[in-house]
Design a protein that fits this description.
Keywords: Membrane, Signal, Transmembrane, Transmembrane helix. By secondary structure, the protein is α+β, with helices and mostly antiparallel strands. About 30% of the residues lie in helices and about 25% in strands. Strands 10, 11, 13, 14 and 15 form a five-stranded antiparallel β-sheet that branches. The radius of gyration is 54 Å and the shape is elongated.
């Protein structure tokens, strides 16, 4: 009984020394995906043989490796079957001669819940904002958001509706939700996605605001309806109808004047032509004779025109043939 107790004490001291002076031993970083199998070898870097009698895996001082999803192989390797995120830790393999190696296990998972998710509702739209605290080990591929009425009408099922676009940019930190109903409680969901799948969903409720403009309009619309005098309504209608009658009369008169303008213009043009002919007749007496010359019967010389007197009293006789 003395030897096992002594060996246990030595092992405990070795682990205590290892964790108090972790810088003395290099830590190997090993990545594993959640749900997959992961093997941690227990071997010396220099290839020296191990002392079989005393070795144990230690998870930060917790030596219980007898779980259903862990096993130790013949070559002293520790195998995780269906790795979980809770098993991300630093593992130490040691024997009587000291620490053999230390391995830090990093478990890559779907993204954890988003941080600081807030919803700022308006009357018919809402503004969703979030922050990314952790990606789960893989880069985020896109975000997804859904919404639905918390208390839908009896004839409708509480179906989730996707916020467009379906795949929100991985660099985005906010999205707008449109076509909401005023004064209604909505449930919003938002989560991140990476290559391992959908992350944990964050759910937030928000109440949209009243449509204040419609409410104020409804208040003032029937204000004073009980004391309203119908005679005022009749007078207002009479004023409106009278105004329309005056406008119609003015329009008809304007159209009548428009139709009369072309006839007056033609008459004025004829008067202008007549006034232009008077100076020509006064200054050139022969102009009138020429204008009023008529064809006559041919004479013995076959001339059928009459003599023309020009304004300088020069007489032009017909050409004799």
């Amino acid at each position: 009984m003395t030897r096992p107790v002594f060996a246990s004490c030595v092992t405990f001291l070795l682990f205590l020394e290892a964790f108090c002076s972790g810088s003395e031993t290099d830590v190997e970083v090993v990545y594993g995906d959640e749900g997959s199998n992961l093997t941690l070898p227990c071997k010396r870097n220099n290839g020296s043989p191990l002392d079989k009698p005393m070795w144990r895996w230690s998870n930060q001082g917790k030596n219980d490796m007898s779980g259903e999803r862990t096993t130790v192989t013949k070559d002293d390797s520790l195998i995780f079957m269906g790795l979980s995120r809770d098993e991300a830790d630093v593992y130490t393999c040691a024997d009587d001669n000291g620490i053999i190696n230390r391995v830090q296990v990093i478990v890559r998972t779907p993204p954890p819940p988003l941080a600081n998710v807030t919803v700022v509702p308006s009357t018919i739209l809402a503004f969703i904002h979030w922050e990314v605290a952790d990606t789960g080990g893989y880069p985020i591929t896109h975000f997804t958001a859904h919404y639905r009425l918390k208390h839908p009408p009896p004839d409708q099922l509480p179906e989730w509706q996707a916020v467009l676009p379906d795949k929100i940019s991985p660099t985005a930190t906010q999205i707008d939700v449109y076509q909401l109903e005023p004064n209604s409680t909505y449930v919003f969901q938002v989560w991140a996605n990476n290559r391992l799948g959908r992350g944990e969903i964050t759910e937030v409720e928000a109440l949209t605001k009243h449509d204040s403009q419609e409410i104020e309009l409804a208040k003032h619309l029937l204000e004073g309806a009980e004391t309203f005098d119908t005679r005022v309504w009749v007078a207002a209608v009479a004023i409106v109808m009278g105004t329309l009658l005056v406008l119609a009369t003015a329009t008809i008169y304007a159209l009548y004047r428009e139709c009369r303008i072309p006839l007056t213009t033609i008459s004025d043009n004829k008067d202008v032509e007549t006034m232009e002919l008077i100076p020509n007749i006064i200054m050139n007496p022969g102009y009138q004779d020429f204008a009023q010359s008529e064809w006559s019967e041919p004479d013995e010389n076959s001339n059928d025109t009459v003599a023309i007197r020009l304004n300088n009293n020069t007489v032009i006789n017909p050409v004799r043939i």
